[in-house]
Amino acid sequence: MNKEYPVAFACHHMDPSIQMRSTSGGVFYALARNFIENRRGYVCGAVFDDDFSVKHIVIDRVENIDRLCGS
Predict the structure, then answer these.
(1) Which end of the chain is more exposed for a tag (fewer CB within 10 A), N or C?
(2) For residues 57, 28, 32 and 22, what is the CA-based torsion angle, rounded to 10 degrees?
């Protein structure tokens, strides 16, 4: 019997401080930063508002990525 196993990949940010504040191991932060800085792109993500309701926001500045980390 030939057993085939799925290929799996894993990664994390090299900066431990970014790893700790992100639920993705910092991968989202790295991708979002690259997209904003190198492509002048926009990033959409979920955040909690003051009433702890989820809403989606769009950012285009690196300074705002932390708002989306851990969401």
Answers:
(1) N
(2) 70
Asked whether residue 71 carries a pLDDT value surpassing 80, the answer given is: no
The kind and range of the H/E element at 46 are strand 43-48
Which pairs with CB-CB distance under 8 Å and at least 24 residues apart come from 21-29? 21/66, 21/69, 21/70, 22/69, 22/70, 23/69, 23/70, 23/71, 28/68, 28/69, 29/65, 29/69
Task: Report pLDDT for 6.
Answer: 87
Question: What does the DSSP 8-state code read for residue 57?
Answer: E
